[in-house]
Design brief:
Radius of gyration: 22 Å
Number of strands: 0
């Protein structure tokens, strides 16, 4: 009986700790929004972070998108062939990429490549007291470090998602038409008939939300890092895991609200 109560107590402490941490993240988000409205507006820092988060992630996003589209075409073909609906493969690929897989997989790639870098960079600055030095020089660390990263992520993740959607659809087309011998005209015509602009818009909205999530979590984990080099590694790992899980939960809520 004692062991049961200890287990319940441990689980309760974990839940309470998680809720407290989410509350602190929300407070950081509020501060980020507030400081983003006050001048000076460091556009140079924003473009620098857009290059780091967006441009440097293009290759991995393209590879992820094209192979995802190709796999979707193969799987959809075998599923629809039993019903004689092979020409609907393009619809399955396009809807899957624009609504779900495009924004989700793109945000995962950006989380692993850029979100972890945010946690590592800011965490290193925290443990080496560079953030304290910024405060001593009357430079607000949230405005200088966090605001550009969050704004850049919100802007570039939707752009990367559009790229992933496009190359995924192209990869599915090449696989379906060249390898599986699906009629090209019917393939494209069905996509035009069943895929709407709202499907693309909803995916872009999701991507912007996911960009906000991964950047806030990455910056928060770095900003609250303790314990030297070991703490930086721990914060980086936790940022990737927490951002990935939170993105999946947010994806469900957004999907339920939009469709």
């Amino acid at each position: 009986m004692v062991k049961v109560w200890k287990t319940i107590n441990l689980v309760g402490e974990k839940i309470v700790g998680y809720v407290k941490e989410m509350g602190r993240m929300l407070l950081l988000l509020v501060d980020t929004i507030r400081w983003s409205l006050y001048p000076p507006f460091r556009v140079d820092l924003l473009f620098q972070q857009m290059e780091r988060v967006g441009v440097r992630s293009v290759l991995v996003v393209v590879l992820t998108g094209v192979f995802t589209g190709m796999v979707l075409a193969l799987q959809s073909f075998h599923a629809t062939r039993a019903f004689g609906a092979e020409t609907m493969v393009g619809v399955a690929v396009a809807l899957s990429m624009t609504r779900e897989l495009g924004p989700v997989l793109t945000s995962f790639m950006v989380t692993g490549r850029a979100g972890s870098a945010m946690a590592a960079e800011i965490g290193t600055m925290r443990v080496t007291e560079q953030i304290d030095a910024l405060s001593a020089m009357a430079v607000n660390p949230i405005k200088y470090l966090i605001v550009p990263r969050v704004l850049a992520s919100i802007l570039v993740v939707p752009m990367l998602t559009v790229i992933a959607d496009f190359v995924g659809i192209v990869g599915g087309y090449l696989t379906g038409v060249t390898m599986l011998r699906i009629n090209a005209g019917a393939y494209v015509a069905n996509m035009e008939k069943y895929v709407e602009l709202n499907d693309i818009y909803h995916g872009i909205i999701k991507a912007a939300v996911f960009g906000l999530i991964l950047s806030v979590i990455g910056c928060y984990k770095g900003y609250t890092t303790t314990g030297g080099a070991e703490g930086v590694g721990k914060a980086t790992t936790e940022s990737v895991v927490l951002a990935t899980v939170t993105i999946l939960m947010a994806n469900y809520l957004l999907t339920a609200a939009m469709f």
